[in-house]
């Protein structure tokens, strides 16, 4: 969906709930998308501060993401696909991009496959022993719990 269309559709809701920022709505949309596609329940906390100074402080000085967080959040690629007109890349990371599961890690660890996307950023996490260890954990069963933690942490920045 084109971003402008999404914003236009959001306007009547925004008028009814003016206390929520656009950033809150975007975070809520992400939470709902994960949950309705079979992913974990992710807590949603509206009202985060949104300013360029705050974001610079958080990302540069305070973000504090761990390897586990980075790998877990990259698992969000299990949903949807890249579109060439938006990112320069085309394709899905998994065979079923409408289901939230751990298949991103299964596909990534099994190597490149015809028709599935693997970006340089996806491959860059594999040489790190700590990140690779987390990927292997996520192929098993730890992904949902770690994803929910990392998503909440990121959304509360």
Provide keyphrases for this structure.
single chain; 157 residues; mainly alpha; two-stranded antiparallel sheet; 9 helices; 3% strand
Describe the protein.
The structure is a single chain. The protein is mainly α and 157 residues long. The protein has nine helices and two strands. It has helices spanning 3-16, 22-36, 52-62, 67-74, 84-87, 103-109, 120-124, 129-140, 143-155, and strands at residues 81-82, 91-92. Strands 1-2 form a two-stranded antiparallel ribbon. Helix 4 (67-74) packs across helix 8, helix 4 crosses helix 9 and helix 6 crosses helix 8. The protein is globular, with a radius of gyration of 17 Å. Residues 50-56 have low confidence and may be disordered.
- How far is the N terminus from the C terminus? 26 Å
Radius of gyration, in Å, reads 17 Å
Shape by Cα distribution: globular
Order of adjacent strands in the largest pleated sheet: 1-2
Number of beta-strand segments: 2
Strand fraction: under 5%
